[in-house]
Amino acid sequence: MKYLNTVALAGAVVWLAGCASAPRVVVIEPVGPAPTGTAQEEGDGSLVIYSARKPADVDVNMAEWRYNNDFGKNDFLYEPAHTDYTIYAQNGEVFQRVRNARRPNDETPTVVALPAGAYKVEAKALNCDSIPVTVLMTVVIKPGQTTMAHLEGGWNPLSQDNGIALARLPCGRAIGWRAPEAGFASSQASYQAN
Question: Which CATH number does the domain housing residue 149 bear?
Fold first, then answer.
């Protein structure tokens, strides 16, 4: 009976942890560099992911007080720093784990140099209802250009009405420029994790 209670408790903890994790969504369109970028045919490209911001350590009583005084904006619940993410090669192996901030107050995401090609990226995002989700998307890296993905919300491209295709979350929010092709990169990682 003693072991039965332990097994039941362990099962309940696993079940609750599964319920508490962010749902996963897949972005169909590959994200690439801005269409106005000038093409350079040599060297590496770079990747910048504006992932969802890290949750802050907040006192529950203070959180309720601030919620009532900022009319539910809840911006104080998040640190300025962006969450970390993982880059995968075509075969599904981890290519690089990216630490997306140097410290909790660092609001500038990490610029990652990568060889040209396409990669899968798994990162935290906010969907259209500001609910945290885990996104799996393809990013295309071109030589000498920067690919950006805006997963924290609030990105509004100026050329949206010029017919330029955008990559979007399943809920419809634009997260970056749509890449016309997505040839995948090899699995040999030439860079160390940050």
Answer: 2.60.40
Domain count, the chain: 1
Structure tokens, 170? 């399943």
Q: What's the CA angle centered on 62, arms 56 and 67, to 5 degrees?
A: 85
The pTM score is 0.70
Q: Is 7 part of any domain?
A: no
Beta strands in the chain (DSSP E): 24-26, 31-32, 45-50, 53-55, 78-82, 85-88, 94-98, 111-114, 117-126, 132-141, 146-150, 166-168, 174-178
Task: Quote the radius of gyration of the chain (alpha carbons, Å).
Answer: 19
Residue 18 lies in a domain: no
3-state helix, strand, coil in the chain (%, to 5): 20, 35, 45
Task: Answer whether residue 3 is part of any domain.
Answer: no
pLDDT digits (tens, 9 = 90+) for 135-145: 999 999 999 99
Could you list the residue range(s) of the whole structural domain that residue 37 is in?
23-53+81-178
Question: Does 11 reside within a domain?
Answer: no
Identify the H or E element spanning 69: helix 60-69
- DSSP 8-state code for residue 133: E
